[in-house]
Design a protein that fits this description.
This protein has 391 residues and is mainly α. Helices cover 81% and strands 0% of the residues. Helix 11 packs parallel to helix 16. The protein starts with a helix and ends in a 10-residue tail after the last helix.
């Protein structure tokens, strides 16, 4: 691991902290401030909408201005969003809070491209992706505990002070970002004529990779977002919900320390299959009971399944384009993935309230099976080496 990958990992971890903090408290804030039960998870949906609408512009901005300026711009927007979140919650303004989470989503949207920047900075793509994802361990510990600690020691209406703490976290990330040396596209490469987007995204490998990324992220986000609501419904408090979210996020990112090596050894497709099995196990455990241990183990498995599937999907996508095609290809992939994430965030609260926690888990099973089927199909029909290597 080189210095640039390490710094990018730190920046990614600090930016992801904002996402985890929002997951921990936003549904609870929505329950207190939203005008109707169906809008409880609207702040999380607007965060994901900001992320979605940023995916294409972020890639195009970086193609024109370079990675550093693009990432700095995203960080600044996220920081402003955190400050607006503090003001909104202090004044109990639900819709202004949704504006704040939208802006934080924009910042996180830029930050999703850190994993591609790490690939470009390393000669071991799968391990670079893993190191970026492993930085989520910072978020797993810092995000939920930041919400609980700040609320305990500096209590304010609607957890407002948590967003002042988040502002400081984002400013630290912005400072570290300035020390990164990015591997930009050379002048010779930029003069090459890229393929049309249609040609790139019609490749079977891109289709399968994008599908795996979409399913892994949307199912994970759906169940993760609904969990604090389900736990609240069954009598658990914020600290107990935060602990479950913390273990879930550890499951999301802790395996990243070795997922890259597993992908290199067993192939991205095989690790996708393993990830699907973990997600199916999550649904099974949630159907067995609603104790604190059921929530904790199931959500941990959900995180591990997402980790294996999402890193594998990213590794597969990174093999489908040349350096001068990276902006449009990465934009197309991120748009596909996060459009589904927005939908899962928007409907999570409504589904948990209307159909219930256990039926929600039942419906996740056939969706995960689609990803499982796609992985088996690609494994049988591909004549290329599936283990991750630089194109």
């Amino acid at each position: 691991m080189n210095k640039n990958v390490f710094l990018l990992s730190c920046c990614q971890g600090l930016m992801t902290t904002g996402n985890i903090l929002l997951v921990t408290i936003s549904a609870l804030v929505g329950k207190m401030l939203s005008p109707t039960a169906s809008m409880t998870t609207l702040p999380i949906a607007t965060q994901m909408l900001g992320l979605l609408l940023t995916t294409v512009p972020a890639s195009l901005v970086m193609a024109k201005t370079g990675r550093k300026l693009g990432f700095s711009l995203g960080n600044i927007i996220g920081t402003l969003g955190a400050l607006i979140g503090f003001i909104a919650l202090s004044q109990s303004q639900f819709y202004l809070f949704c504006v704040a989470t939208f802006m934080i989503g924009v910042g996180i949207g830029f930050a999703t491209l850190y994993r591609f920047a790490a690939i470009e900075a390393s000669d071991k793509p799968a391990r670079a992706i893993s190191m970026i994802m492993a930085s989520g361990v910072i978020a797993a510990v810092l995000g939920p505990n930041l919400a609980v600690w700040v609320n305990h020691h500096f209590p304010t209406v609607n957890y407002a002070n948590s967003f002042l703490a988040l502002t400081c976290v984002y400013l630290i990330a912005l400072s570290l970002l300035q020390m990164v040396k990015f591997n930009e596209v050379s002048a010779k490469q930029s003069n090459l004529v890229p393929r049309k987007v249609k040609e790139i995204i019609s490749q079977p490998q891109f289709i399968v990779a994008a599908l795996i990324g979409m399913i892994s992220y949307s199912v994970m986000n759906l169940l993760m977002t609904a969990t604090p609501l389900a736990m609240h419904r069954h009598g658990f408090d914020l600290a107990e919900s935060a602990l479950v979210i913390e273990w879930h996020v550890l499951g999301m990112f802790l395996p990243s320390f070795f997922t890259g090596k597993l992908v290199e050894r067993f192939s991205a497709v095989n690790m996708t299959v393993v990830g699907c099995i973990f997600m199916l196990a999550c649904a099974a455990i949630n159907l067995l009971g609603v104790s604190h241990w059921h929530f904790m183990i199931a959500l941990f498995f959900l995180g591990v399944g997402w980790n294996f599937m999402f890193i594998s999907a990213t590794a597969l996508v990174s093999q489908t384009y040349e350096p001068h095609e990276r902006a449009k290809t990465q934009a197309a992939n991120e748009f596909c993935v996060f459009s589904m994430v927005v939908m899962s965030s928007l409907f999570a609260g409504w589904l948990e309230s209307e159909i219930g926690w256990q039926p929600l888990n039942i419906w996740s099973v056939p969706i995960v099976c689609v990803a499982l089927g796609a992985a088996f199909w690609f494994k049988q029909h591909s004549h290329h080496e599936l283990s991750v290597s630089k194109p």
